[in-house]
Write a sequence for this structure.
């Protein structure tokens, strides 16, 4: 009886997830969440494609093709593609605020910063699902150009590791990881920055759950500096220059997929193979901390790691980077927390932790999903299953939201941030179908 009830509950959740993806589709792409994010977002679309993979693999290709319509001439892939001009006024900063022109597509408008490169990984999954080879090959070449852009424009000191230039490029927008960098921006630099935020109108308890206005001003300050250089370069005193373990682990995981696929499609990937080898040699040197057995971002300007425990501290598991014995230790630390769900975006014992605030504490399904995929690759099936079950239960209990309460005993009855969140739906579909 119990097993049957469990099965029906799972099937019901699956149907609700499929319905969210259908509802959020806008022709050939999917918005991350109604109203809050009304355009196409970069890494969101990678995760969304994983949701289509099982039943509608051709739609997964369509999703990525729409995203890569926004690719720039230099290979750069923007974090937002502004389809549907009629929505421009409903999101801030708008397409006109970004004003990306040099190298950017026209008339389609885009932002001028990027997001973690998950698409190579997704392409390999699509290949294995047997999608149309011509469409896949054409996308493969675009993803390869994007990775080439990253190494040619963002590589730090021949380390095979690439820098991000904005907190939004990490995808973990207001993580405590970035606090010290933002502390270096002076109040007088923010005097002329006007805000016209829409996000705070769209979610409940926005003062607790979204970044603060002072934070947003700093995000825009960085955008204004980048805009002056047409988003193509930074000056040496530019404040935000970070080697993020999440961005780089995802890049390395996607490289591996591209290298595998290149062999199958007969396309040369020598450049990426060389960079991959160099990056793997330097990853632990810059980003691993022996004492805590965790990964941290490296602040290029200060020449040191930012030692705060976040979910990203575990994400290199996705790319197979730590030794298996280290992974087991890392996972046991998380599994044995009596009060906390796996993997809070910031550990509750860190001073920057806030239980409802976006990337400062809540659990995000994409992080759990990537770590789960990594555990499967290590053959750590029991730990993978625990993580999968806990992640599905979270969505069953709180709904298909953007992020989730990090404590096992929480007063919250619903998830946090945007409702009907596409990547939550897509990745839960992938977990259930596996
Ligand atoms: C937002 O709009 O909050 C995104 O995370 C940044 O693109």
């Amino acid at each position: 009886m119990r097993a049957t009830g469990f099965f029906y509950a799972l099937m019901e959740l699956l149907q609700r997830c499929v319905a969210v993806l259908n509802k959020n589709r806008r022709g050939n792409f999917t918005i991350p969440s109604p109203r809050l994010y009304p355009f196409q977002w970069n890494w969101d679309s990678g995760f969304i494609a994983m949701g289509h993979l099982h039943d509608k693999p051709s739609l997964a290709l369509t999703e990525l093709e729409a995203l890569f319509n926004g690719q720039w001439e230099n290979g750069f892939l923007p974090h937002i593609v502004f389809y549907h001009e009629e929505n421009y006024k409903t999101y801030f900063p708008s397409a006109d605020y970004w004003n990306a022109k040099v190298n950017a597509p026209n008339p389609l408008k885009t932002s001028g910063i990027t997001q973690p490169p998950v698409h190579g990984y997704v392409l390999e999954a699509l290949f294995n699902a047997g999608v149309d080879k011509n469409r896949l090959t054409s996308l493969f070449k675009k993803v390869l150009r994007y990775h080439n852009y990253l190494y040619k424009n963002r590589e730090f000191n021949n380390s095979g590791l690439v820098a991000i230039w904005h907190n939004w490029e990490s995808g973990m927008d207001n993580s405590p990881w970035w606090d010290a960098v933002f502390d270096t921006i002076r109040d007088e630099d923010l005097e002329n920055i006007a805000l016209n935020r829409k996000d705070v109108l769209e979610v409940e308890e926005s003062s607790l759950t979204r970044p603060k206005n002072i934070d947003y001003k700093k995000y825009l300050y960085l955008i204004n500096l980048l805009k002056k250089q047409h988003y193509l370069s930074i000056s040496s005193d530019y404040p935000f220059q970070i080697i993020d373990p999440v961005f780089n682990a995802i890049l390395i995981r996607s490289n591996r997929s591209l290298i595998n696929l290149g062999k199958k499609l007969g396309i040369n990937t020598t450049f990426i193979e060389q960079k991959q080898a160099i990056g793997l040699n330097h990853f632990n040197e810059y980003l691993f901390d022996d004492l805590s057995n965790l990964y941290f971002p490296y602040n290029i300007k200060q020449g040191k790691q930012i030692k705060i425990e976040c979910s990203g501290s575990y994400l290199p598991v996705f790319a197979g980077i730590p030794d298996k014995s280290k992974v087991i230790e890392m996972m046991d630390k998380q599994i044995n927390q009596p009060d906390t769900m796996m993997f809070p975006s910031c550990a509750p014992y860190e001073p920057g932790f806030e239980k409802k605030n976006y990337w400062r504490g809540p659990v995000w399904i994409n992080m759990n999903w990537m770590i789960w995929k990594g555990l499967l690759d290590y053959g750590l099936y029991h730990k993978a299953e625990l993580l999968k079950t806990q992640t599905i239960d979270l969505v069953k209990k709180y709904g298909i939201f953007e992020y989730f309460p990090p404590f096992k005993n929480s007063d919250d009855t619903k998830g946090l941030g945007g409702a009907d969140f596409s990547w939550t739906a897509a990745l839960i579909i992938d977990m259930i179908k596996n």
